Amino acid sequence: MASPTTSHSSAPPDHDPAAAARSVAIIMDGNGRWAAARSLPVAEGHREGARALRRTVEAAIDLGVDSLAVYAFSTENWSRPPDEVESIMELMDETIDRELPDLARQGVRTRFFGRRDRVPALLRDKMATLEVETAANERLHLWIAFDYGGRAELVEAARRVVEDGLEVEDVSEEALAARLFAPELPDPDLVIRTSGEQRVSNFLLWQSAYAEFVFTDTLWPDFGEDELRAALDEYARRGRRFGAR
Ligand code: FPP
Predict the structure, then answer these.
(1) Rounded CA gap, 19 and 17, in Å?
(2) Distance of alpha carbon 173 from alpha carbon 61, whole angstroms
(3) Which of 26, 27, 29 for mutating ligand 1's site (highest number of atoms within 8 Å of CB)?
(4) Interacting residues of 91 by C-beta distance below 8 A, sequence separation 6+
(5) What is the number of alpha carbons within 13 Å of residue 66 lying toward its C-beta?
(6) N or C: which terminus of the chain has fewer CB atoms within 10 Å of its end residue's CB?
């Protein structure tokens, strides 16, 4: 089972399905449909999604999760209407100001991973400041994927391999893993996707090689402790079946 300090390895997965999931990743999907069902602008769905994120982080602490990675903004999300993109940038900004400091007081260490060059400069600075301010926290490692894409990450890792001048025989899984956006991000034991869609959508392509997947019909703004507990229970049930005759 991965731990926040575990780095990637080419060895068989230390992923132990018989144990509780300690490293969890979530594809937070369904904000738009949640808003549409209420005749609200999509930004309201994202706003409610930010509340669900706060709830879920607190639940994850209580449920013994060590590492939680969430997909907040993908490399493809830039192609959404400009006002929606702007609303997500503003929401990230507000969340850093209002929610994440409180989570920091509860021992949450927050890190962002993805491209940084396209994020508005002020937001980029706030992200970096929060990372520094929470660096000593250990209760839960929160990883927020922002301007993140699994393919972009692998291309960037390949570029870094070339830039570092590695010899062909030195190009290994370890060498590539060490050049991902967030080399310290543990491989997820469990990936949850909300809203009934059953796709990976370019999230953690490398890291989820051995992950269990749980899909729930719940829209992200309705997600919280009960849904997280249900997904962790499903993971544990799969673990108990693992190895059975
Ligand atoms: C997917 O829902 C969600 C996003 C693209 C944005 C995720 C943002 C949050 C959950 C809010 C928390 C994040 C921040 C920035 C604090 P969708 O819009 O694709 O939903 P749909 O498929 O129903 O349209």
Answers:
(1) 5
(2) 31
(3) 29
(4) 43, 46, 47, 50
(5) 17
(6) C
Ligand 1 pocket, 202 CB below 6 A?
no
- Whether the CB-CB separation of 212 and 191 falls below 8 Å is answered with yes
Pocket test for ligand 1, best of 88, 103, 112, 219 (most atoms within 8 A of CB): 88
Share of the chain above pLDDT 90, in %: 86
Active-site residue, 77 included: yes
Residue 127 Cβ contacting ligand 1 at under 6 Å: no
CB 31, CB 213: distance < 8 Å: no
For 116-147, how does the pLDDT look when each residue is reduced to its tens digit (9 = 90+)?
999 999 999 999 999 999 999 999 999 999 99
2, 23 contact by CB (below 8 A): yes
Evaluate whether 148 touches 71 at the Cβ level (below 8 Å).
yes
* CA dist., res. 190 & res. 19, Å (int): 11
Spot the catalytic one: 16, 77, 93, 222.
77
Q: For ligand 1, is residue 92 a contact (CB within 6 Å)?
A: yes
Q: Indicate the pairing of strand 140-148 with strand 212-215.
A: unpaired
- The sign of the dihedral angle between the CA atoms of 47, 48, 49, 52 is positive
What does pTM read for this prediction?
0.91
